Records
---
Amino acid sequence: MLVVMQATATQADIDRVCTAITEMGFQPLPMPGAQRTTVGLVGNDRRVDGSHIEALPGVSEIIYVSSPFKQVSREWRAENTIVTIAPGVSFGGTDVPVIAGPCSVENEKQILQAAQVVRAAGAVALRGGAFKPRSSPYSFQGLGKEGLELLKLAKAETGLAIVTEAMDDDGAQLCAEYADCIQIGARNMQNYSLLKTVGKLRKPVMLKRGMAATVQELLLSAEYILAEGNDQVILCERGVRTWDPSSRNMFDLNAIPAVQKLSHLPIIADPSHGTGVRDRVPPMARAAVAAGTDGLLIEVHPDPNRALSDGAQSLFPAQFTDLMRELGPIASAIGRRIAAL
Amino acid sequence: MLVVMQATATQADIDRVCTAITEMGFQPLPMPGAQRTTVGLVGNDRRVDGSHIEALPGVSEIIYVSSPFKQVSREWRAENTIVTIAPGVSFGGTDVPVIAGPCSVENEKQILQAAQVVRAAGAVALRGGAFKPRSSPYSFQGLGKEGLELLKLAKAETGLAIVTEAMDDDGAQLCAEYADCIQIGARNMQNYSLLKTVGKLRKPVMLKRGMAATVQELLLSAEYILAEGNDQVILCERGVRTWDPSSRNMFDLNAIPAVQKLSHLPIIADPSHGTGVRDRVPPMARAAVAAGTDGLLIEVHPDPNRALSDGAQSLFPAQFTDLMRELGPIASAIGRRIAAL
Amino acid sequence: MLVVMQATATQADIDRVCTAITEMGFQPLPMPGAQRTTVGLVGNDRRVDGSHIEALPGVSEIIYVSSPFKQVSREWRAENTIVTIAPGVSFGGTDVPVIAGPCSVENEKQILQAAQVVRAAGAVALRGGAFKPRSSPYSFQGLGKEGLELLKLAKAETGLAIVTEAMDDDGAQLCAEYADCIQIGARNMQNYSLLKTVGKLRKPVMLKRGMAATVQELLLSAEYILAEGNDQVILCERGVRTWDPSSRNMFDLNAIPAVQKLSHLPIIADPSHGTGVRDRVPPMARAAVAAGTDGLLIEVHPDPNRALSDGAQSLFPAQFTDLMRELGPIASAIGRRIAAL
Amino acid sequence: MLVVMQATATQADIDRVCTAITEMGFQPLPMPGAQRTTVGLVGNDRRVDGSHIEALPGVSEIIYVSSPFKQVSREWRAENTIVTIAPGVSFGGTDVPVIAGPCSVENEKQILQAAQVVRAAGAVALRGGAFKPRSSPYSFQGLGKEGLELLKLAKAETGLAIVTEAMDDDGAQLCAEYADCIQIGARNMQNYSLLKTVGKLRKPVMLKRGMAATVQELLLSAEYILAEGNDQVILCERGVRTWDPSSRNMFDLNAIPAVQKLSHLPIIADPSHGTGVRDRVPPMARAAVAAGTDGLLIEVHPDPNRALSDGAQSLFPAQFTDLMRELGPIASAIGRRIAAL
């Protein structure tokens, strides 16, 4: 923790800050500058709350220098964590697995078709929502447990691993039973009760970045899961909210190298939500691979024109097949490989 | 729903869109313009998902014109909803109630002192968190049920109504038992499972705006509560996230008249989170009253320098007393009154 | 400047940073912590660029602690600067002057009517654009010099001071000749050539905050003007850009106390651009006064329905008259007064 | 233009809107819906300002359906515009030219070294600022005309095309004389006087996206240049401002396909400003190519540790050489080629 004094602070002001730091059990270290003095605090500052020092006379600002996360950081573990959600489907290594499928599980025919289509094109896992968080209470909310049964069926038929979203404790228990990886959606990124629940479940978790969450907040939310003993966490960039209405979201590919530098956890990219528009999914999926993503999450629907949700951003089967063909050479160019079952 | 065609769209493109609208069970209404044609859809468009029309050749854009909320809107109910959380503590009328107290309940002495201080200065309700959503799992998480017991004690001693936050279903049940109004925090504004739970509890709910939630999303989240049969909802503006680090949040006072125009629900303002800095709380509290807020939520701590959380934005008792004195004449100037017990 | 080391940094890494700081001519001051070491730099750090230190092994982050502005800061001058644009029209003291008028000067009749209307209601200065920055090159761009002549005429008839915008060097010269205060618009807040030009003109300048400018950037742009020798600068909050489409802009009233703490320059508020909607102008104008604004800038048009620009946010004459009546008691409540000619 | 009525609007309200549209010279077309009526306006709506209709009783909202840009749009010209700034250096075709060099021209040795280094690695144009827009008036402002002379010298020695920034009219004239392409920086994207000036110069212009400019605003600013008769415009995505402090900017690669769909103008990407951190430049440069960028603008300095500006985001020569090697296969994967002299 650093206490930046005002240029006009008196020696008495500085002394008062030093006394306050001493009373907190740390050692103050004043650094006079030509413009102003800064007082450092020597000792472990992880849990120090300096807000009352901010109110002392002559204090301009408090700066915290400790990173607030711990187990998620590369300093805690230097090697990449490899998260394996099913045999052959691992995130964090050289291979880049692609998870694909519809926004929602709608019925047996739709999800089986979707599974076959994405399997044939090279995906290794199937996505599909049984519990859907919708802005409006009047929108389709998912098939619930029946949807999970259908996903299980799709797995049995295709061998694809299953990734599906949980919205509350009961849903998380069910997803843990039926699926290979529990998705926590953007709206629940800071639902700490739910994070603790999935932290206790010992099942791989895919944690999506909140609508306006900083990279640091994403990592802190992951820390909640690791703090409960579950380090099988895959992070996911899915676009964030900005002031530009030209896209549903702004796809922050920068977050990929940023997270990979700060954390040992794998991070994947969701260009479907990241852009919100079908035509931009292929270029952004390619860009994500070139940027070094550890996986992709892509919406594909057997018949997007009849999708119950997110139709406009779902790829047609043929588009997805073409895209998968393009991704291979790009992965090769940076020494990686699109994962295959 | 409006379908805006490209300037280069052919008559065949326009016909194809009209056919698609007809197939959806609505009547198409083409409006030729000098630049381009727009095709309107006549009929109830609340639940229409036009995303597959967006993909037809010659289509430039889809514009939705129906407002997605229903029971929360002024069109549904023209008169203000008055939410009474305790005898004499009503939001949505001429009176402006002030809720004040510490960020967290820390211990008996602290919460009782806080209650006495804010009661003496003119507050009509006490805030204080027993369950605290914290970005880091290693920060103080609140006293839990013990905190609720202490709030009940403070109510018994002072007569103040109690407002406290719930983070999950179990917490919501407990808060309903001990408190007068259940707060849903910014991070849980789109935790739809929790919204449904409090919608069923028939207890007043204070719903805080999410960190980066639009006014429309705030209203849609309230719609979840009303859709379950509970219309005792108070909305709360508490500052939102922007790109300017000069404040912890940007306090969007504009949201007050905006919500009051769109909805019959009361909206209050939280200048403590709205600014994040003690010195700015009084000017922004005054501004909120001048802007027509239906209530205030203010952090006051008997000894902010020793607060376990949010010390830097908590008012000292004397500051709060001064502020309460300033608010009266401002409320009078616009024909309102600071509520008194 | 502070150099935050990684938790895994070796003593050799720390030594290398200390050597680099010494080579830059400053004295390094290492502060070991339980988690990580921070190295302070003792000496004047105003112009230090530590970016190459950031690249040294073991370095996690560089933190700058010097404020980058100088002459605009309260540390440079503790007393408020009073900017007087015409006899009796001063910003920065107890009085709160109101500048009102149409977005653009359209013709003689319109501007004279506007001037009479706002004069009668109590404004002390007239606004009106002769040079208009418009997003589209095909929108009305203003009357140019003819507009300035009409403003001069309006001044002669009403005694109101004149505030009008300049967009380039030639325009600035003309405005200096015809008007009492030169406005620099939001889009030109970082047009440094223009800032230098008006810094040399020795005429009061009203500098509007850029669309997405931080408070610090606003002050740095003002610093450009002061650095040329002109300290007659009035800052103006006019709403900023965010992700919420429910308002044209988000009106950041928080910026008023924030600027007043950091700088001695007066800051006024423009609720017309700050909200973009006529109905929200009165509540936000009241809020600005309650928050302590040093002045108001309000769009009023004799016939908003026929305005060539910004009609939807211009007040009708009667609305403005009502608003002026409401503002007095609010100003009184905080010990100020709406300025009168 | 569409006028959305409130659900509670009466037939008289609708009639009043129809009359107002008729008075404006257009034909109204009411579309009754189950929820509410919408009134369309038939006829050319490019310049229609409906703000006074917004104020009529019963009106909920005005929606504009015409795109406000004209000459920059793909509807105006379907084929890509190819902008050739020097023989062999063309933007908008299959080839992807790379412009590289230091932030500022510092001295002869530095700029010649930089030119040789980037030439050897495969760049086809040299960037380097002679006029520098800096947030603080006390930062290095560039060498001015002397810098232009040095750029000319670098061109003579290496054959690289020259791209350099102009900040005002005089600078634009000089840049036109000395350089091959005039850059308009992010801070001047809405400096309309300067846009008009470069529109008249008939020299290629590279227009950088403003700090918080939407894609539509970027295109409208380009429209200012085309409206003066100059269609040699290259757009540039350089990162935008958001609420996440983890990066200097958020790099909006989504803007590349978005612009390419809306406009015939080429768009290039600047990953140096887009990320602000050296380590993220290579992954984001690769991502930009995979996303289909029409060119790259990259900061490279012969000795970044001693750079006078932007050192932390400038690549070392060896990093740039490595990056150029990686880009080729990625370009090939999507059927393009990194341009070579």
---
Amino acid sequence: MAFVIPQGFSAAGVHAGIKRNPTRQDVALVVSNRPAAAAGVYTKNLVYAAPVAFDRRLTPGDGFRAVVINSGNANACTGDRGLSDAAEMARLAASTCGAEPKQALVLSTGIIGEFMPMEKIAAGIKACAKDLAPEEAGFIAAARGMMTTDTVHKLHSATVTVGQRGFHIAGMCKGAAMIAPNMGTMLGLVLTDAPVAARDLQRMLNEVVDDTFNCISVDGHMSTNDTVLLLANGAAGGEKLSGDGLVQIQNALHEVCAELARSIPADGEGATHLVCIDVKGCATAGAARQIAKSVADSPLVKTAIHGADPNWGRIVSAAGYAGVPFNPSGVNLDVNGFILYKDGAPAAFSAEQVSSSIKTHRETSIVLSFREGNASARFWTADLTAEYVRLNADYHT
Amino acid sequence: MAFVIPQGFSAAGVHAGIKRNPTRQDVALVVSNRPAAAAGVYTKNLVYAAPVAFDRRLTPGDGFRAVVINSGNANACTGDRGLSDAAEMARLAASTCGAEPKQALVLSTGIIGEFMPMEKIAAGIKACAKDLAPEEAGFIAAARGMMTTDTVHKLHSATVTVGQRGFHIAGMCKGAAMIAPNMGTMLGLVLTDAPVAARDLQRMLNEVVDDTFNCISVDGHMSTNDTVLLLANGAAGGEKLSGDGLVQIQNALHEVCAELARSIPADGEGATHLVCIDVKGCATAGAARQIAKSVADSPLVKTAIHGADPNWGRIVSAAGYAGVPFNPSGVNLDVNGFILYKDGAPAAFSAEQVSSSIKTHRETSIVLSFREGNASARFWTADLTAEYVRLNADYHT
């Protein structure tokens, strides 16, 4: 599907010398030609980075004109100097469009515990300002500017019609795990030209992130920098949306965020399989998500999928320690459509057939169902490979 | 230190044909020549094995004469037939010393979801009964009879004098992770000739296991079969212990269990480092343990240690998502005695020196301290290697 750009937004990304490889963008800028409302969700880690502290104070809010992004340095565990560096980045980004420092937001990812190379950052922001373009090439360059160990840039967009009015939503994100010596992180930036009030934007983002970016994992290690920002500049025109209009926007936002979220474990470090875990028949969506996460984070489940081994005991026992009560005799398990476990007892199946199905598909489907209620959750993860270990053990600081 | 055997206990282990390799014991028997009090702690997994269900109903209690152990088959997810097989194993074990079925306990570990080969088990128990010996060789054979992917058998003992009376405590355990197609598990059996009432035994075991076997991890995947049993037969003579005597026994029990627990991650699948995580200065011991477990279970911390990479950001950020509140500016971190992080800020250190220290020691020490209180915890884990992935991905069902 073609990538559509919400009206009024332009973007650029350049190589400013933070990353060693000169072909890799490491500073990016996204500008709205009019003030935008913004919402944000952030890492729950107590040890959080300076840009997280900076953005969290300002969102939800109105009047935003710019988002500055850098990769190669997370500006995390950098104390007061890190905070003033983040503020300076916002000031520089805002100044490119004649705005105030508090009208810009900051996203950083990369190595932890090192101070920002502010001269390079300043030069990079200046270079971005010259390149800004409301075109796909600019958004690709910006999406590449947030990449660390990602092997592909991650962009997705959607169009939604509310009554007679057409709106666009476009997002970018990064994330593949964390790589030594860098602490890579999940970053997301979603833009829309729909007119939405900041508080509606924030509620919408909270709900959508819970079902999308909060339903993925690669290695279960929560970073210091995780951030998703959502900007709405209203450039498509019309009054602020409410009621059904907001619901339609939220549905489109869900589509964009789900696609972006899925792209992260799909690009998981060293991964050979993207794993989709559907948990059904739970009392609450939270319970379903907790079981799904327990299965997703088990290194034994992840290695079994890597080895194309239909080892259902690992999946069922990971559900058993999720901390969610359930009746074991109501448990059913399908892998790639094959029934492996039925009503709490082993089912007859051909191990060769299931193994061959896992081996020949890049995506593995796990469906775990219970008899506790009607709530469900979908969670995405990656398998665990020797390559993941090598990537994270063998590249030293 | 020499291995001492509590009075009145004898043990044996034989190859009964459950494991393919004829040099490996797979059925073991431990018998007390008089009735013993017994306590047990079990997996909290909702999906638990038949022997767990069997033992849990009987402990704490009195009158036990035998414990039968097998490896190679976990008797987990085997429904009603599994339950009757476990009961039959108890009956066979008890009959070797003229006791009733409810005077025996059962420990199983190995493949999940397959029925027990009861003919082999019965023959194995019979062979064990002939071999029973109150000698170290018998206990080594029994400890080998509970091994799955363990590379060494795990035995430890202690002697304690209460007033003029000398008592002995001896324990065995197994565990290295889980290996495809088997679901290995943690099993422990501790014996003493001290006279202790069943309810004191249970309280003591609960407290000790919390600080020892519950403070280790290899891969964070809780099994269906985890069990630690403690038997006290009073063969050393005298009245039931109380007060200070119980405290002394509990201290010795702690020593034995701590040493056994540590031996499990030390033998972790594919591990090249045993990692000791000390967390200090927390409000409660539970908080300290929760932080230690969060650090221990992070694949990024585990791979960094495997790569001898002093990547302190991974350790500090894993503490940050443990779910325990703390002031980030009060955090200090030492690795192998080197200060890497002080008062919430990076410390100056030589990365080469720390890396070389990690590389040249089999054991890595991580000390994380906070300024929230005086409680602490010690936790043991193993590093994560490509060999772990190979062991768990490449050996298929």
